[in-house]
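Shift notes (night). Ran Putative LysR family transcriptional regulator while the centrifuge was going.
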Amino acid sequence: MFTLQQLRIFQAVARDGSIGGGALALGLTQPTVSHHLAALEKELETPVLVRHARGVTLTDRGRILLTYADQILGSAQGAVQAIRDRAQLEEGELRIMTFATAGASFLPSLLAEFHRRHPAVRIRVSEHNDPSGGLLQVRDGAVDFAFIFTVPQWAHNVPELRIRSLFKDPLVVALPSSHRLAGQDVVDLADLAGEQWITQNTDHDAHHVTLLSACTAAGFAPSCPIRSDAFATIATYVAFGLGVALIPALAAANMPAGVRCLPVRSPGLFREVRMAYPADDASTPASAFVRVISAIDAQWWRQWTDVD
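Came back to this:
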């Protein structure tokens, strides 16, 4: 019986039209290729190639063999890949980079479902503060998958990655529960023009940039004397009446007593939560995680951003 190696060599020679070209494509010597082709024809008891000065051509039986060689070698490669994929789901690792409010809201539920389906896969999670950093980590192979957020003022495009939108996370105003506007159902930013705003440490932070843009559109420049990158810290300052803040709805679910979060009557005040993974070569665990996420409907995401 002929071997897969013989079929692979025959296929390479048939496609190139020469023994030398087939040998070069496979990294073999011409004598080795000729030896395997002779053994193949001996096993089949018929010539499959006609050798001439310009190279080789297929006989009628050679064309039949090439059709089956393509199928057999494709099936063999598929079997190898399937076995490797299974091994990764039994022994592999899923490396995820995320942002803090994702980890404090929807991500644990997703990971629990993934673990239920693939209990042998090790899960590693790290956090980032800069969305572009998360994308670069995926691109460079440091992690398999990333959750990121973007705001309308920022655009992220990494051609090597597939970036899919999951849901919009509204930005809401966090007020002390004793605030004059805390009893309303919705607020206008213009009504908060005279307030002290608690915002992020760095001026280039996405949330801070969004706050400045929104306040400018509302006709004022916000005063920002207190700064912190942690929404929990920001919320504590708000609870003690030290100012107001613009925070994502994902963070609003974990506010301390003394804080009321209200929607803002302003278009475009949101951040978009996205997932990113390699476009062409995602790991098997990452692909399995994408399938978990793809099975979720829009209503499931909405529960994390509802503000009472």
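The chain has three domains: 4-90, 92-167+271-302, 169-270. The chain has a mean pLDDT of 88.
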